[in-house]
Structures are given as C-alpha cells and as structure tokens.
Amino acid sequence: MSEKVLMKGNEAVAEAAIQAGCRYFFGYPITPQNEIPEYMAKRMPKVNGVYLQAESEVAAINMVYGAAGAGARVMTSSSSPGISLKQEGISYLVGSDLPCVIVNMVRGGPGLGGIQPAQSDYFQAVKGGAHGDYYLVVLAPSSVQEAVDLTMEAFDIADMYRTPVIILGDGMLGQMMEPVQFHQYKGRNLPAKDWATTGTNNSRKRNIINSLFIDPQELENLNIERFNRYKQIQEKEVKFESVNCEDADVVLVAYGTTARVAKSAMSRARAEGLKVGLIRPITLWPFPVQVFQQVARTAKAFLAVEMSMGQMVEDVRLAVNGLKPVYFYGRTGGMVLTPMAIVEEIKKISGGEKND
Q1: For an engineered disulfide with 32, which of 147, 171, 195, 222 has Cβ 3.0 to 4.6 Å away?
Q2: CATH number of the structural domain spanning residue 291
Q3: 136-140, 183-187, 188-192, 254-258: the lowest-pLDDT one
Q4: What is the mean pLDDT of residues 48-68?
Q5: Which pLDDT value is given to residue 1?
Q6: How many angstroms separate the CA atoms of 266 and 342, rounded?
C-alpha cells in the first residue's frame, strides 16, 4: 500500500487518471481547474502519453472523440463555461457510444460568472446539456481522496457501458490540499473494445464510428438499446452515503464539498438535541432514489442544501414523491454555505416556521 501524499485536488485527479491508464489528455485552460492540464503536461510525456492543449474547448472535445473512437483511455477537463462549449461534442460522443472521462470543476455562473466554487452546473450535467435523448454517469466526490478513487473507477464505468462519465467537482475541491493514497486499482473485467477503429489488417470488417443515422427506425433502435444500458447503470452503479438517518426527523441532502459543510451542521444540530441525518448522493446520475423512499418512511422532512439557487432539490422532490415535505437552502454566485446557517434552517423546519 502506498504512503499518503499531500496533493491539491486538481493534481490528484490528474494523477489518478494516469494511474487508471489514461494516456491521452486534451484540454484548454480555465480557472479553477488549470492544475489538471498543467499536471498532465508534465506527467504525460513520462508515461508515453499524449498531452495537447487544443486551440479551444470545442477542439479539445473533438480530439477526445477521435482518441475514444480508437479505443484509447482519454480525458478532458474544464470549468463551467468551457464545459458549455463542449456540449455538442459530448452529444456526438454519446451518439457514437464512446467512453471517456470529463472533469468539471464548477465555478459560479451564469456566463463568465466568477472563479469561486459553485454547484450550479447540476442541471447541465444530470439533465443533459446537449441535444438528444441521453444521460451521463455523474460522479460527485466530496474529498480529494474520493476524487482519486472515483476518477479511477470512472474509466472502468465508461468502458463497461460505452458512455462518457463526468466527475463533477467544484473550485473548492480542485484547489484544496489533502493527504491522499493511490491504491493499486484492480479494475473490472471489461468487455473487449472490438468496436474501436484500430485497423482491420484485412482480417475483419471495418469499424465505423458515427452518430448520423438517416433511417429513423435505425436511430430509434440504437436509442432504445442505449437506454437499456442506462437501466443497467441504474441497477448496478448507484452510490450514496447515509448518516444518522435511522432516527432523523430532518434529513439533510447534499453532495460534493457542500456535504462536508452539511455534516458539520448535522453534528452541531445533534449536539443541540435535534435529530438530523444526511443523505449524500455520490452518483448524481443515476440518482439514489431508493434510499429516499426508505428514509421517507420515518423522517419528517428533507432539507436540500446546495451552492446554487436550487437544482438537485428537484430530484430530491421527485425521489421523495410527496411522502414528506422537501425544503431548500442555498447560496449562489460562489458563496459557500456555513454550518451555522444550515442549523438555523433546520431549526426553522423543526419549529414549523419554514414554508417552501
């Protein structure tokens, strides 16, 4: 087992990708994720990999398309406005069933917004920011160690289901430094990439990577097959953390770095005699619906806390399905929530003062 090393979140994600077998990285600089391409620029040549700073985010995602089509493990990273520019290419990747990993260290928006951490790209990541019928697997780490572990697993998930996978962090996760350990990742038993454009050597039929299908019946059949894979993902890949929910009256719901603040709020509330629990979705898609159905049997209310004006809260309401009230508290524009402010919201709910 390797020793722990102190690393910045962005650099740890980059190293994790390399250790997971990523040998191609295409990107373009934007704060607050710049340490990822910087790290890749230094490390990739040492592992016989390829780092290329594209002329734009649009170019970068299309280079990802090319490398993924050839069967390579490939990653790109950006922050909110840059991810927006990549959306058309992401739709093409989905339409061609190509695996890759996309990192988004979210900053405040809309527009150029600011460089402070935010969670306002939830809709874009989970609901589909581009055109067509599709989902992306979305993983939301809350610590640098978890970012390492989930990045390694993301490549296997991508290859297993032939889909892009998003690591959804934020500027705080990307910039914070924490001790991490790089375990020897065993990996999954993955299917062969017999679809890749690796050359036929005159021994097989040519593989063609394409997302254009003029025959509507053919396109419908492909979409249905893809959604059958999504069903498998929903059955097998859901991840979440549940804390103190057995006796909780109010259950906090938070993901990523906000979940760490929520945990502190939960502890403070419990110290004051309030029965508070926490559900932390780790897969934002697929969303952990079943745990909400279970907890709603005993909980009195749910409070979604986010660094946004309220996005994940919609999925919480869908998951709770009217069984119990769902409230929301958030900060936006790069403002970070505090434990005390969350405790005050819990008290309002517990005292019947809050209407939402």
Answers
A1: 171
A2: 3.40.50.920
A3: 183-187
A4: 98
A5: 58
A6: 9
